[in-house]
Amino acid sequence: MLFISPPDIPIEEIRNTNTPTAQWATNISMKMGILSLAAYTLKHVDAQIRIIDLGLEISNNEDSFKTMIWEEFLRLTMSKVFDSELPEIVGISALYNSNAGYMELIASTAKVLWPGVLVIAGGILPTNYYRYVLDEAPSIDAIVIKEGEKPLVGLLTAGDKKEYLAGAKGWMTRERLHEEPTMDLINDLDEIPFFRYDLIDFDAYQKLNRYHGERSSDSIAVSVMTTRGCPYGCCFCASHTVHGKKIRRHSSERVLNDIHKLKELYKVNIILIEDDLFFIQKEYALEVLKGISKMNLTIEFPNGISIQHMDEEMVDALKTAGLKMATLAVESGSERVLNEIIHKPYKKLSRVKYVVSLLRERGIYVRAGFIIGFPGETMEEILETKRFMKETGFNWVQIFIATPLVGSELYDICKKNELLISDSLEKFHFGQSNIRLSHSTSEEFVNLRYLMNLEVNFVDNYDLRNGSPQVALIGFLDVINRVPNHAFAYYFASQCYEKMGKEDLCREYQAKYREIVLASSEWMGYTKHFNLPIGEMAEL
Predict the structure, then answer these.
(1) CATH number for the domain including 402?
(2) Could you tell me where the beta strands, DSSP code E, fall in 44-117?
(3) Is-contact 500 470, C-beta < 8 A?
(4) Are both 237 and 142 inside the same structural domain?
């Protein structure tokens, strides 16, 4: 069997990598769903499994990607994964709307390469939009509904696979479109073995992973998941449509054994806990954190830490367990937007300030995630959010554009009220504005979001403004690592080095800033917008 994960933005945007906003490669991370499917499958079936992460393949083979037609690159990438035996099944993982444009090309390429192969698809997009996927991708034979572990094992062990698909739980085919979709979930997550990290290029994911903290040459990060499900109803989220609202979890003993195994096998020292809601059962979270605290690790929660579940006891436990950088799921700096539009479980922004103060008192770097561009959100509320970003004490913020994911309440609202700018699903990703807004065109809003990012994180950086250049430098160097031609990161890093008395590094980074700006009309425009120097820098 071959699992394939497509990139998370359209291929034409990946090819346009010469602009400051082209940061597609920063989103590459280990595919946890596929790793779980592989582990559970190999527990029950004697099979050969291969995994292709197309985003990683593009990143690792950039020269070939740039010189080859995309269809050629894809065919070559798919064809080289098997030496002799050919795949009987190809599974396409599609989490986001933006994966839609890849599905038929991947499926049809598989059928050309391996005549008779069965092509299946699963994930948030196929689960919620199975009619669309089956219509737009005629080369796909069947779709897994919700989670795929048990349905996939059933398929692989079936004698007549087409007969099995015709009636089995957890599957949808064209012949079954008149039926209500069914699901076949695992209740005890401990039934899933240790994830099969050995099936991926583990080292390649170290170049770009979801940890944004300070790293050294021996830093090794890995993603893990301890729970599935979320009972909350944030309007932009569709995860519950696959994993449900009921929380299911691995036992704390199993989680700690897995982490110990990762240390032993892969020398891991950074654990990225990717759960949607790790903290909802306090006793469980504290038990896991207590166990991790004995392992001398750094931990992070890239999907965001729930504001609702933070108190002094939890923050202390996080600090002891190795949390150096907290990513908070704040979402908005307007209480009306939080309550009436997003439906966050916490109601008051004073709680955010309280949590930030707890973290800062313990020396933890504070990142925060925000989403702007919801239907009904006013421009004044967006500016209110920007003021909140600047004033609250965040070391860094991530600003996303509201994206109507299939399966989310936001998508249903936009569809019902004809607010979608384009019905082309592949355009629906977190860097684009696809919602009709009363105050901005799509192009204006994308530019607004990027200017806000430059203003809050660089021009008016909280730590530079408050005399902490060493802390500010953490964010700037992380950006340079991920987006090597980011002019503002170089400029403001040079300002940090100047304040730190490191004159040689200051001049080096200033020179790189000037080189980038003078070679890019877009960066030149941003530089002029914020009145940054363009000519020779002043003598130190």
Answers:
(1) 3.20.20.70
(2) 50-53, 89-93
(3) yes
(4) no
